[in-house]
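In response to reviewer comment 3 from the previous cycle, which asked for concrete evidence that the modeling workflow produces usable outputs, we include below a single protein chain processed end to end. The sequence was submitted unchanged, and the resulting structure tokens are shown without manual editing.
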Amino acid sequence: MGEVAAADPAHEAARERGMHALRHFYASALLDAGENIKALSHYLGHHDPGFTLRVYTHLMPSSDARARKAVDGLYESTGPAPDGPETAQGQ
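The workflow returned the following structure tokens.
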């Protein structure tokens, strides 16, 4: 009783090349386009966004580049800061 049946090779091949592969492609395309995990989880029919995150986290763009871009954007949106003695005196 506690033994796990060996996987059917035909089933495994169909899973890797069939609908499972198509779902994985769909998820990767949406993540690459910037879709969030909660929405992707809903689209895929997952009840737990945490499950979706665990399965597809390796496909998510690097947060390092997004963080750099966000901070760079903060500096770009402000003009050059005055840095003379009048700045310290509030003039």
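The first helix runs from residue 9 to 17. We consider this sufficient to address the reviewer's concern, and the full set will be provided in the supplementary archive.
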